[in-house]
TrEMBL record:
This is Carbamoyl-phosphate synthase small chain. The lineage of its organism: Bacteria, Pseudomonadati, Pseudomonadota, Gammaproteobacteria, Enterobacterales. The keyword ATP-binding applies. Keywords: ATP-binding, Ligase, Nucleotide-binding. SUPFAM superfamilies: Glutathione synthetase ATP-binding domain-like (SSF56059). GO terms for molecular function: ATP binding; ligase activity; metal ion binding. It comes from the Bacteria. The keyword Secreted does not apply. Residues 120-309 form the ATP-grasp domain.
Amino acid sequence: MYNINILYIGQVRDAQKKIIQLGYDLTLFSKRIDFATSEEFYEHDINTPYINVVLFSNNADAGEYAQVAKVLHMIRKFDAVICFNDHMQDIAIQISNQLCLPYSISKETLDKCFDKGKMRKALSLRDLNQIKFDIVKNDTELKKSLLTFKYPCIIKPTSSSGSKGVVKLASFHECEKYLNGFYSGLYPLIVEEYIQGKEYSVETVSNGGYHAILAITEKEIDLNTFVEIGHTIPAKITKNTFLKIKNNVSKYLKILGVENGPSHTEIKIHNEEVYIIETHTRVAGDNISKLIEIATGFNIYEICVEEALGKRIIECIPEFPVYKMSASIRYLYYNGETPAVITSLCYKNAFLPGIIEINMHKKSGDIIERLAKSKDRIGYVISKSVNSGQAKRTAYEACCRIEMDYI
């Protein structure tokens, strides 16, 4: 009996778990640096029924991955190549091309989405609300560019993620501390005008150029670092605002060439106008996929996997999201001036009614640092309720009940 055979590139465990739950065979390609090294994760991986697991050198290029894929494909053909990691999609595209298998996006589209400078240039040719921007390659160009912007403004690397290197400048005089090596190795940078307003993300699955919105997420951002510290589904928006978002995001994805697969688009709304911040051609991170499933009943990984296999699951998604519940996630983080060491971490008092998951990334003995990027966060809680406000309050209160001592 023939069984569907999927080649999965990268490390998103919820996606791998769903593929196996669907009854499909799974071969995993991963970089060593991404593969879990702790005993807990090692045991998980050993007990997961992969057909093959291939770990590549951290320096392996796409050609090496493709060579191994071709050999395995000769032994037993793959039906699809799937990847939900930004930094591995280039490899997935090359493998798909080598094996003559379809992939959700093209190399050109990936480049436009991954490089914020290319994205802004593509949008500048169309009629979407524009954010003033400039691309700079060194400290001299950065300083010169900052003289032309109103303040506050934003500086960020064109190709980083997880809020790494994102800075909000209140005045030109602040730029001096970000010169002389601060951005060494991170150039080119993009300078953008700062847009006021609330931030949201749009969780979308596309097929043949049709873009179905599964959910709109309301985001909570640390105002100093822009690191995301909370998400809630559904976002509190009007039907008219939803239609504006749908119209703008659909135009935006078309400009970038996104026709198939998942996308996670970050936007801001100010004075009823929608501004595109950036997009990723993958499922949202930060456990937003869990919030989507709690709130709508849809597992976005299942939809994406079945779509990759040629099934039209997207037709089951309603034109307007239907929310059965509300769900919220809140991250725990440290804001001390100097690094510290956790001496104890207890969350037994945080299991309030409505809390469905508590997960700590750090443990006693680990070093914690002031919040500067996503990886600095200590852990999270997820809640559900009949409305967004209550779900958000419950998650926040649970975080406040987590007891953490440090020195």
